[in-house]
Write a structure and sequence with these properties.
Blueprint: H1 5-16, E1 22-26, E2 29-34, H2 39-48, E3 56-64, E4 80-88, E5 93-100, E6 108-110, H3 119-130, E7 133-135, E8 164-169, E9 174-179
Parallel strand pairs: 2-5, 6-7
Antiparallel strand pairs: 1-2, 3-4, 4-5, 8-9
């Protein structure tokens, strides 16, 4: 039997109190916003406390809130966050936990890879794509981009065409990096119309 999300939200508020900045319920899913200072403590309790038993971390990702709120939604006061999705097999329940990094220039959040080993590669991915550092991570290095890659491609201020491109050079017999050579161009679709008012078919 699945745990009632309303009951889960209420129990989280009762148990953690000021250790949570917010608990919300939307589309049948509970989201808890945890302060950076109590992130590790709350995560350990969510795994180990018999009341919660979130045995599995099924996803962890970075979020860049720069420019967020253009659609009228509330804008967070911090730019980078880490969002973790937890699963309790014991109680058949899910929980989303969000923690914000304090420093926009060098965002850092404690690693939970020692709590849930599945977080290891997810944290490496968030580091690679968003530049979020995970203190205490055993092997924090790029996982998707090349070792010499400059920047973090999922940040909203990263240019769409990137900074450099790579290609194989026949003369040098190796891969070389060079400035991006894409020329901006406008692509206008060509529409063929039938003079009798049809669409040409």
């Amino acid at each position: 039997m699945q745990r009632n999300p309303f009951e889960l939200a209420e129990k989280l508020r009762e148990k953690f109190g000021t250790d949570l900045q917010d608990v919300s319920l939307a589309f049948g899913e509970v989201t808890a916003v945890v302060p950076l200072s109590s992130y590790r403590e709350v995560m350990l309790a969510l795994r180990d406390d018999p009341e919660w038993r979130f045995e599995e971390l099924i996803d962890l990702c970075g979020v860049d809130y720069a420019g967020y709120g253009n659609s009228g939604m509330e804008v967070p006061d911090k730019r980078f966050a880490v969002v973790v999705h937890l699963l309790s097999l014991t109680f058949n329940g899910r929980l989303r936990v969000r923690v914000f990094a304090e420093d926009e220039k060098m965002p850092e959040v404690p690693s939970v890879s020692d709590i849930w080993p599945s977080a290891n590669w997810f944290e490496r991915e968030a580091f690679d794509l968003y530049g979020i550092l995970f203190s205490g991570h055993p092997d924090l290095r790029r996982i998707l981009t090349d070792y010499g890659f400059v920047g973090h491609p999922f940040r909203k201020d990263f240019p769409v065409q990137g900074y450099v491109e790579m290609r194989y050079d026949e003369k040098e017999k190796r891969v070389v990096y060079q400035p991006v050579t894409i020329e901006p161009r406008e692509i206008t679709p060509r529409v063929v119309r039938d003079p009798d008012g049809g669409d040409g078919r």
